[in-house]
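Fill-in record for tRNA-dihydrouridine(16/17) synthase [NAD(P)(+)].
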Amino acid sequence: MSSKLQGRELYESLGSPKKIVAPMVDQSELAWRILSRRHGADLCYSPMYNARLFGTNETYRRDNFGELDGDEKIDRPLVVQFCANNPDELLAAAKHVVGRCDAVDLNLGCPQGIARKGHYGAFLMEEWDLIHSMISKLHQELDVPVTAKIRIFPEKEKTLEYAKMVLSAGAQFLTVHGRTREMKGQQTGLADWSYIKYLRDNLPPNTVIFANGNIVYQHDIPRCLEVTGADAVMSAETNLVNPAVFSTNSTIDNEYPRVDKLLREYFEIAKETPGRASAAAMKSHFFKILRSFLPHAIDIRNQIGPIKRGEYEKYEDIVRQVEERVAKVLSEEGVEDKVTNDGEYKNVPYWRCQPLFRVVDGMASNGKITGKRKATDQASEVSQSEKMAKVEAQDTIPATA
């Protein structure tokens, strides 16, 4: 539709966002988006919704996209993401969020077993005609723009042709997760930024590209922008354990908030946020925020498990216990509440939100990742400097996780 904003114009209308909350199943719901925006996120994606259910089941739709989702005052800019394998079902679902979002995104990146079973996400990567028809359907018939999130093929050239097809169908933004479909679970490994840089170099310069993968620290965001040439950076799992990854303030309290303070902030938002989705996600968010803390507070961990959705008094009691426990730890003689460097990595006190290290070769330890991280950076750097003189290419870019 000619009246819709497209590409670069659409991106600029959203404030040219640089830091984006990724679409995550049951995790990037309204309460979490409000918290993430407070801590520096410029743009948020909704959780991934099943298009068939969203379009036909009013209960599913109401439970997942409540009265304040997409509200102009508290929840914009917003992109709503769907998984689908049928153009008509996708359009029917997307029509329900027109006026309550800035774009609709097609998930082409989910690599999990449920996506294989449901025939969506990354398991459509070989069905280019189907993908083209779904994106084209929304581009031509929906009153808001359509975007897409993809994973890479092992071959850069095939990834480029895939991206061109997605864009030609009408996608206005292209989010690129620098991992293949097979890179999940114990085989997750590091995202390869050189693929994103390759797309940046070989697609029209005005193409809006978001990079996804390998964000561990705040400073990984500008580093990713530099290495890939992307317009913005998206974070998923790191955002869940530390939403302050988007903060531009480098003080310890802004970069690695104390878990007691962040948990209290999140809880106060979530308990006042209407709708089933925020209540249902609370337990998972508690576990993720307290990921580094609970091994030192097994009794608190055991109390969280049995709590049922909507039992806010019990969650309030957990928050109070965490606040008391952190205060006790900090009152002990000799406790240092500071972040120290361990080579390329930072040692963050367990009572503060932590960076998250993905599995590499079946292990999530810093030491295992170090060599892999350097090798990945070197590959990205080579791609970035292909057009530069050899002597210029000796200038190395700092490693990224």
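KEY FINDING: Strands lie at 19-21, 43-50, 78-83, 103-108, 146-151, 173-177, 208-212, 232-235, 340-342, 345-347.
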